[in-house]
Automatic annotation (TrEMBL):
GO cellular component, one term: membrane
Assigned keywords, A-Z: Membrane, Transmembrane, Transmembrane helix
Cellular localisation: Membrane
Homology family: Belongs to the unc-50 family.
TM region(s), chain numbering: 37-57, 64-91, 139-162, 182-201
The organism of origin for this protein: Ilex paraguariensis
Topological category with respect to the lipid bilayer: Multi-pass membrane protein
UniProt xrefs under PANTHER family: PROTEIN UNC-50 HOMOLOG
Protein known as: Unc-50-like protein
Length: 213
């Protein structure tokens, strides 16, 4: 039974977000935002943080431009579109409550709303993996067990919080059921993290070498 999970996972900020989402549905007749400002803000912040990495670790303007474009496209837009589409398909196909009678208007998750949920979930992950990680990167890319441990813990925290916020985004929709499905990836992340730590895999070194080696 997963019923008791909701009271413990809710905070005042998230409840406020719930109310705003429901209010938006009542006034605009859609769950998704009609203002792309938050997406633009995410893109700008991601571009600035990537430029900071390039200024610290890159030595070519051309390559820096390539890195910025790659991060914006792959890390945010393409990955977000794929994840949002998967969640959109799963919710509409498997998680919608069956209408009690034919007179009830059928509700579906909008694809744009699924991308909104991704953006909301991405922002805290951005703060951890792009901002905090930047200031800790000299330590994280060093050799030794502690950098491996810290790097994996940062990734575990960021990924877990992403999936938690993703769950909240769909849990607020009254016509969905079994939304705790979106919490399951957190368990996978928690299981994989000790394995990666014990194997000596350092995600910070891996991605820094991939972009700046």
């Amino acid at each position: 039974m997963f019923v008791p999970i909701k009271p413990y996972l809710s905070t005042s900020a998230e409840l406020s977000s719930y109310q705003h989402t429901k209010y938006h549905k009542q006034t605009k007749n859609q769950w998704a935002r009609d203002d792309p400002a938050f997406v633009v803000i995410c893109i700008l912040l991601l571009a600035v943080s990537t430029l900071a990495y390039c200024a610290a670790y890159d030595h070519s303007v051309g390559h820096a431009v390539f890195v910025v474009i790659s991060v914006l496209l792959l890390h945010f837009l393409i990955a977000g579109a794929v994840l949002a589409t998967c969640c959109w398909f799963l919710t509409n196909t498997y998680l919608r409550e069956e209408a009690p009678n034919s007179h009830v208007v059928e509700q579906r998750v909008e694809l744009l709303y699924a991308f909104d949920v991704h953006c909301n979930s991405f922002f805290p992950m951005f703060a951890v993996l792009y901002v905090i990680h930047y200031f800790l990167s000299p330590l994280l890319v060093a050799h030794g067990f502690f950098p491996v441990l810290l790097s994996n813990l940062l990734c575990m925290m960021a990924a877990s919080y992403y999936h938690y916020l993703n769950f909240l985004g769909y849990d607020v929709l009254p016509f969905l059921e079994r939304t705790t499905f979106f919490l399951y990836p957190i368990g996978i992340v928690i299981i994989l993290s000790p394995i990666l730590i014990l194997s000596g895999f350092n995600p910070s070194r891996y991605f820094m070498n991939m972009y700046f080696s």
